[in-house]
Design goal:
Keywords: Oxidoreductase, Signal. The protein is of the alpha/beta class. It has 3 domains: 53 residues, no CATH class; 228 residues, HUPs (Rossmann fold, 3-Layer(aba) Sandwich), CATH 3.40.50; 106 residues, Glutaredoxin. It is 37% helix and 14% strand. It is built from 14 helices and 15 strands. The strands form 4 sheets. A 6-stranded mixed beta sheet has the order 5-4-3-6-8-7. Strand 9 and strand 10 form a beta hairpin. The chain starts with a helix and ends with a helix.
């Protein structure tokens, strides 16, 4: 029976294929020259007198180990190219499953402690509290210090400062602007500040059709030809958790609470929502398929959010084309629109007894940017002084005194000090002129 089993194994797999398995037994096979040779083979192919051909579970386990070993080597090879060929690689780390795998791989290669690869983190001010705590944990565990970036003009960790400048509800008012302010702009600023020429990230083909064709290297969507390294591009989510379990890799604590992927607390939920699937003590509890099915990893992300066109939101904007087009200048820097430099000056204009037009704006707001040319054109021939006042830095004042809940807000200041809001989405030069002239009729 054993001889027959050996012959079957040789026919099915060939002698060379058999030796590729982890050996646990041996059989005698015949070489091309007719000389007997002792060939070792896997426990999965081990034969017994009960006519069992092979141990299916053992074969599956060995196959997975072989696959994971290959994926590890492939990922490390790409990381070696990213770090040593480019010389200034940066890893934006979101601390999700794939990212902790990359963190561990970089550690194994010695790139974290020696600083050959820098780690950056974007704090959106809306993360789970556990996320930044976990960052401090892995910094200590691996011996590195991440560079943290957040919304422009706000100190790291200053949520109150963010709320004062951008508004605590910006994500409700305009999710695209929120993504730009809290994710895309600090992300791009981080890459530029760290002077990177190769960005390492954890995107995979398994994450959905938007990413189904990515390769291990590609051009990043940022000016200057920056390279993007996707070391785990060909991994499944199951591969990442297999790796985490194999090496007992530190991972985000919310995996143990039912979250397959972790983003902002405001729009991230467990999958399934009852939290019945968990990853605890390096093992899955419950049915793991809701996490591991194709494109399921990010099902719990961006929940309840939609793009401007009404489509379901699946990306925050960091990895899409055009992400480099952040805004780093003021509006109406030249021309007839006059600047109001302080709240005291704004109060003086309101109480001056003279008519005026005041646009309350934020330079990062796409709608303010969109009306820049037309408002400047209107100001050139306006019948009253035209002003701009940057409201994102003085939210309390503009809410109380200038009718402002969102940007832009255009107001007509009447001679009696009352402030009337322009309540229309039409923002051409002619529209603003018509708004101004409506007050001439009312006071005639």
């Amino acid at each position: 029976m054993k001889a027959y089993a050996a012959a079957v194994a040789t026919v099915l797999f060939g002698a060379s294929a058999i030796t590729a398995f982890a050996p646990s037994a041996s059989i005698t096979t015949r070489t091309n020259g007719g000389v007997a040779a002792n060939t070792k083979f896997s426990s999965a192919l081990g034969m017994a007198d009960d006519e069992k051909v092979f141990d299916q579970e053992a074969y599956i386990a060995e196959s997975k180990e072989m696959r994971l070993k290959y994926l590890e080597e492939q990922a490390m090879f790409s990381l070696k190219i990213a770090v040593e060929n480019y010389g200034n690689a940066v890893f934006p780390n979101a601390m999700i499953a794939g990212d902790v795998v990359i963190t561990h791989l970089l550690h194994r290669m010695g790139y974290l402690k020696d600083g050959a690869a820098k780690v950056m983190v974007v704090d959106t001010f809306h993360l789970f509290p556990e996320t930044m705590d976990f960052l401090r944990e892995i910094e200590e565990f691996y011996g590195f210090k991440a560079e943290v970036f957040c919304a422009e003009g706000v100190p790291v960790g200053d949520k109150a400062g963010y709320d004062a400048k951008y508004g605590a509800n910006l994500w409700k008012e305009d999710i695209e602007q929120y993504d730009k302010v809290c994710k895309v702009e600090p992300f791009q600023r981080g890459l530029k500040t760290l002077n990177t020429d190769c960005m390492i990230n954890g995107r995979t083909r398994w994450q959905g059709f938007e990413r189904a064709w990515i390769d291990q290297f590609e051009n990043a969507p940022i000016g200057g030809g920056l390279a993007k390294c996707n070391p785990i591009a060909y991994w499944t989510l199951e591969d990442t958790f297999d790796y985490i379990a194999k090496y007992e890799v530190p991972h985000h604590p919310l995996h143990a609470q039912g979250y397959p992927s972790i983003g902002d607390a405001k729009d991230t939920i467990p999958i399934p929502e009852d939290g019945s699937t968990k990853f605890v003590n390096f093992k899955f509890e419950g049915d793991k398929t809701p996490w591991l099915d194709y494109a399921s990893e990010r099902k719990g992300r961006f929940v309840g959010l939609a793009n401007k066109d009404g489509s379901t939101k699946t990306e925050c904007g960091i990895h899409v084309a055009g992400a480099e087009q952040t805004f780093d200048r003021d509006l109406w820097e030249e021309g007839a629109v006059k600047n109001i430099a302080s709240t005291d000056e704004a109060a003086e204009i309101i109480g001056s007894g003279k008519e005026a037009i005041v646009a309350v704006y934020a330079p990062w707001c796409q709608f303010c940017q969109g009306m820049e040319d037309e408002f400047a054109k209107y100001a050139e021939s306006a019948g009253v002084p035209v002003y701009k006042f940057r409201g994102d830095e003085e939210r309390d004042f503009v809410q109380a005194s200038l009718n402002t809940e969102s940007f832009p807000t255009v107001n007509f200041i009447k001679a009696d000090g009352s402030v009337v809001k322009y309540d229309s989405e039409a923002r051409s030069a002619d529209d603003f002129a018509t708004f101004e002239k409506s007050f001439e009729k009312s006071t005639a």
